[in-house]
Amino acid sequence: MTAASSAVERLGALAGLRGRAAVDHAAATLLAFVAVLVLAANDGGYFPPEWGWSTVALAWVGVIALIVGRGVALVREDRIMLGILAGITIWTALSGLWAAAVQAPVLEVERTLVYLVLLATLLITARSGGAALMLGAGTVAGVLISGFALLTRLRPDLFGLYDDPVAHGRLYQPIGYWNALGIFAAMTAALCLGAAMRSRTPWVRMSAAAALPVVVSTLFFTFSRGSMMTLVIGVGVSLALDRDRLRALAIALVLLPWVVLAVGDARLQGALAQGGAGVHAASNQGRPLLLVIALCSAASAATMWAVGRAERRLTFGPAIRRAYIVCLAIAALVLAAGAVAVYGSPPHMVSRVRHALESKGPAKDANQNLRLETLSLNGRPMLWRSALADVGDHPLLGSGSGTFEQYWNQHRPRNYVARDAHSLYLERLAEQGPVGLVLVLALVLYPIWLAVRARRDPVVLTALGALVAFALHAGFDWDWEMPAVVCLALVAVAAILVSAREEFPRPLSSSVRTGLVAVAVVLGVAAFAGGVGNQAIASSVSAAGGGSYAKAESEARRATSWAPWSDQGWVALGAALVGQGRRDEAAAALRTATRKDPVDWIAWRRLADVTVDPERIHALRMSAKLNPKATRRSLGHDDRVRLGLTGNH
After folding, report:
1. Residue 600 belongs to what domain range?
2. Residues 6 or more apart in contact with residue 253 via CB below 8 angstroms
3. Tens of pLDDT along 74-86?
4. pTM to 2 decimal places
5. Could you give the CA distance from residue 149 to residue 144 in angstroms, rounded to a whole number?
6. Cβ–Cβ < 8 Å for 605, 634
7. Which has the closest alpha carbon to 619: 636, 633, 637, 631?
8. What is the CATH number of the domain that holds 567?
9. Do residues 370 and 362 touch, judged by C-beta distance below 8 A?
10. How many domains does one find in the chain?
11. Calpha distance 434→64 (Å, rounded)
């Protein structure tokens, strides 16, 4: 027995699993923990080099499980879910046939393969009865990442991650984007609260309760209003479906004061909520707040212990339950009356909300607490309108996966940089047409439907809260592009699927196993090639940035061999050759880049820098056509006049 299996067996014993049963759940448990933790710790898995290596590692685990695993089974629901995700992957790849260039769809496929192979490996390694351990492992990883993120805010003197000119005081490390960290923490909080409300194991309930003030404080410092809203809705949905909802709500209410106390004290610390306040000022406020949060966590765990003791000793009759319901109803009426008194009648509220959504948010350098007092969508409607315009131009098949940035650069109404439409569903409709939208809707709605059917299972209800939060938040941000966020959601999906299995499902036949091994090997080889190519591109760019142009050239040439579909290796090669003064060779490399991706405005702009008229003017015209605003800013007055980019064009 390995050390890892032994550790899982001890953990399983604490959770009520003994001997071989705990070891059988080791693989899925460790996989859920490691996948979420490693991706979140590496910039959320956002950058392409992470995708290939992640897929290779996951495929390798899947192959081993298929070859040596006992009782490997995939029931009908598992196969449907994997079929949906495989359909998304295949349709993403097919969109390269009608996209202007194949590079963007290939990158989208590489990212999507991480999700497909992770879910497949989780389902292959999971065993009936192991959903709780698997979901718990993902939750622990989420708590560790959220706790580390909070430490970087409260003790910037130790981590040096505070004064970032882009974040403007919003917490974003280690995932790399504040709203992504926000929904990651929100999903983790939903899982912790679900465990505190529904677990049958006292130490699990106490640990989950202790984690809540930490995770919610992390969520607060991201100032991600959408994540906070989706947390409330996700927990609300799981409570509404809970057969013992009154008990669960009571537990949530007795834990709430400690969360409110921690967040309330955090809100008073101005230096922690404003970029540029300085490391010294932030640390001076962060140290005592860290103590407050630690005390709130201890009090939350103690409260959960007291609740457990009370549940074992006290019995509440129908009269007390009716009184409890009446109190809840009165509280709801008081809140509704207060809302009307402050904000006016419901029609007036709707009008105010609509105006607030369209209003401009607080200044980026202002205290970020002000964000919590506004409903501004921060330019998202502009992106959504652009996505809808893209739908109008490509109504049947879309413009191709990963092409929204190209459409936005060409048609954006003002100088606003964006790579994504900030809505998974609108972006899918724009890039992949109705088929792409239906597939991604099925991806989130099918497991939710399964969870509603299996709502008697406490593990399912807990996973459902996190999954609903993700499904809603993905509608107004770019969560799909953050693998750490999606993988935590997929752990919840896998927990729902495994919980719905029969106790002894029929194992896969040897022929099916062999076929799956072959598929995993093929995907692993393809991912390896993509990983080498993406890593080489990143290494070349990094070397050129550091002035090591010979190394940059070597890495760029390696990238052109391993990723022949991409123009990025040739763009990187051009930069490396320019750094060495070999402008003619750089021009040849950039010409190749523009042939491979004729809609890459950066390749055209760099080609213009190393050529002379008339080729230079042609390259500038192409760059201006693909991104008029960025090209205009980079040119002198005479060139702008020659290209017709003067005035407000």
Report:
1. 513-643
2. none
3. 999 999 999 999 9
4. 0.91
5. 9
6. yes
7. 631
8. 1.25.40.10
9. yes
10. 1
11. 38
